[in-house]
Amino acid sequence: MSRQTFRFDGKMGSLFPVLFQSIEESREEEGVCCPGKVNPGYEENVMIDVTLKEMLEAGVHFGHQTKRWNPKMKRFIYGERNGIYILDLQQTVRRFRVAREFAKSVVRNRGSILFVGTKRQAQPIIQQEAQRCGMYFVTERWLGGMLTNLQTVRKSVERLNKIEEMMESGQISRLPKKEVAQLEKEHEKLASILNGIRGLSHLPAAIFVIDPKKEHIAVHEANRLGIPVIAMVDTNCDPDMIQFPIPSNDDAIRSIRLITAGIADAVLDGALESQVQKGHETPVSESFSETKEEEDSEKKSGDEA
Fold first, then answer.
1. Cα–Cα distance between 109 and 270 in angstroms, integer?
2. What does the longest C-alpha to C-alpha distance in the chain come to?
3. One GO CC annotation, please (predicted)?
4. Sheet containing 136-138: which strands, arranged edge to edge?
5. CA-to-CA distance for 38 and 45, rounded, in angstroms?
């Protein structure tokens, strides 16, 4: 799909039909399923088309201002409108599907995924979706060493548990008021940071991140330990640090909710398959390695462009 510069009358809604038609024309040329057409190469035609429409409606395609971009995201950009980059939703749909399949595979093999999103608009969504699918989450602040020095973090969790035991047993009421106030303040701080990872005794098999630029410490720690990263990457992010990038608007609430809910659904599917296939190891699909080769090819083409 060639990159274009859009010219519109300034109305937000006028972008949708033109962009949708342009994407669908390109998908048809490349043999990708389109509404009303049967494509034997895909088993989930309806789901893919609905997802594309939902992405448009949720504003997943809106990137940052053209002056605030990372050139490494060039291969994911479809065009520009009024100084705003427009992401290529054809790539977003495909990579979102691959990321979900990977997440499902991780949980199917009884691994865990850590959901990370500390920006204000992402916090409630990350917590809600992580709890819905039974995964761990970080929404307040990423503690340095949360992955690379997990045992030290576990000591903080033990401290939190000890304070709560004192509160529940009434032991704290026998302490001086000043000490009680200090413990309550410490409890509030620890609980806000650690509540989502209390049961995390081993490293997660993968992490899912909203805005890897903001969560660069988490991404760096995961990369250092060889933990795969699934992330929403906006036009100002570095996709080279992400094993499963999902080109998307990481600022809009509807966009964050749509992508995060999709990953959570994949986790639930993986958990169900794990129960059905208990005791049977299922390897990660070879399609992931093929996708990485395709990514490298696209990256090379984008750099040469």
1. 8
2. 75
3. cytosolic small ribosomal subunit
4. 136-138, 113-116, 206-210, 229-233, 244-247
5. 8
pLDDT tens by residue, 136-165: 999 999 998 999 999 999 999 999 999 999
pLDDT value of position 11: 35
- Rg of the Cα trace of the chain? 22
Range 192-205 average pLDDT: 93
Residue ranges and CATH numbers for the domains of the chain are: 1-147+203-305 (3.40.50.10490), 148-195 (1.10.287)
CA distance 87 to 92: 8
Q: What is the pLDDT of residues 224-275, one digit of tens each?
A: 999 999 999 999 999 999 999 999 999 999 999 999 999 999 999 999 998 8
| DSSP per residue, 11-27 | -GGGHHHHHHHHHHHHH
Closest C-alpha to 99, from 228, 273, 205, 200: 228
Region of 13 (left: φ > 0; alpha: ψ -120 to 50; beta: rest) is: alpha
Tell me the pairing of strands 4-6 and 77-81.
Answer: parallel
Q: What are the tokens at 145?
A: 């060493």
pLDDT of amino acid 174:
87
* DSSP letter string, 109-155: TT--EEEE--STTTHHHHHHHHHHTT-EEE-S-PPTTTTTTHHHHHH
CB 59 within 8 A of CB 232: no
What CA–CA distance (Å, rounded) separates 6 from 20? 13
Give the model confidence (pLDDT) of 57-69 as tens digits: 999 999 999 988 9
